[in-house]
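## Example record

The block below lists the input lines for one assembly entry, exactly as stored, with component labels intact.
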Amino acid sequence: MDLWRIRGGRRLEGECRAQGSKNAALPILAACLLCPGTVELRRVPRLLDVDAALQILRALGCRVQQQGDRVYIDASSISGSAIPRDLMERMRSSVFFMGALLARTGQAALSLPGGCKLGKRPIDLHLMALRELGAEIEEEGEQIFCRASSLKGREIRLPFPSVGATENILMAACAARGETVIRGAAREPEILALQDFLCCMGAEIRGAGTDTVRISAFHPKSALCFTLPPDRIASATLCCACAACGGDLWLKDCDSAHFSTVLYFLNQAGCDIMRKSDGLYLRSAGKLRAVGPVVTSPYPGFPTDAQPLLMAALLRAEGESLFRETIFENRYRQVPELLKLGARIRLEDREARVRGVRRLHAAALEATDLRGGAAMVLAGLCAEGETLVRDSGHIRRGYEDLNGCLQLLGADISYEGEKHGVFV
Ligand code: UD1
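Predicted structure tokens for the full assembly:
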């Protein structure tokens, strides 16, 4: 069990570097299976979810080496297409191995993926799309068996722009004969990162970042090197922390265009923000105004992942902020814990009304999920007294060194638990 101790009340000031993107890293790690040789990935964040992806690659017979923020994956001798259930259950992103394995070996045996419990998280769109490409898929309880003697390019229309389904199709379609066109594709920056990676490996793909993506050919190279983009949600986390506590943050090596909607609301709340080509500068007086409605929606809308973080930043803002969650049915799991700090939040179905309070007081909290856990740490930073956040590893699934970054900025925070970013 990890334990965070946060003594709130300090201004945050200083410089931090954005970590590599978790949500780009995970599909790209699965896509390494498509390379018949060695891939070198750079700026790989050291996270439990990345660790789980590397274990899956090893279980499939890949040779995996890690040096600092670089990971080398040799998938030339891949020897299996079945993923052990315990590894599947460790994260949602294990589902990407379905498309990647189908493309590389023509089969995949796996079980339903795990991940944060945010309500129903079906994979019907993934299965529908892979079937359309010609895969035969049998579901037996929680087990899924996929087989395809050959995949055939098709036009696939997604009724909802699912990020995960778009990524699975991109990978599987690389092995398909003929062109695949995805209509209604997700437009998240991580789709663009996967397209860039696959193109670097020898695929012809265009359209990522729009709602129509075309995958037309794939001539895999036997070696490549790729650098992951910065993490937009981890970047948004540090901005929300500084906004809430008051302070001056220089966040370098981030891409502010990828979390503009979060910055828009922080600016509305009273923060000064200056974007530069190599990062961003944020200044907050610590006294924020309420904002809203903050409506989560697919990119380029407000990211569902940033909702708990912005909420934490606004707990002491003047007035009432309104949040509306449209992506996941159970994305307010942080709320009962934030109430223990004295926050005033009213939940009604998919809406949360946050009435700013003058003071928050310390309490003992339990992290419920990755972003919810980070939101509790942020709220602790502006609560009076010592807040404890007990966490069974959620935060380390997505943050490389949140404790170190916040300490660097002057927060009075300490962390007991397993060391961050330990690869096995
Ligand atoms: C979601 C976020 C993504 C974020 C990621 C990691 C959106 C649209 N997606 O991606 O930005 O980076 O979490 O936290 O905000 N759905 C189905 N059937 C499916 C797949 C999805 O009904 O087969 C539904 C989900 O239940 C959910 C919605 O579609 O309501 C979004 O799903 P999707 O984009 O696939 O989720 P993730 O890939 O987890």
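The chain has a mean pLDDT of 95. The chain is about 30% helix and 25% strand.
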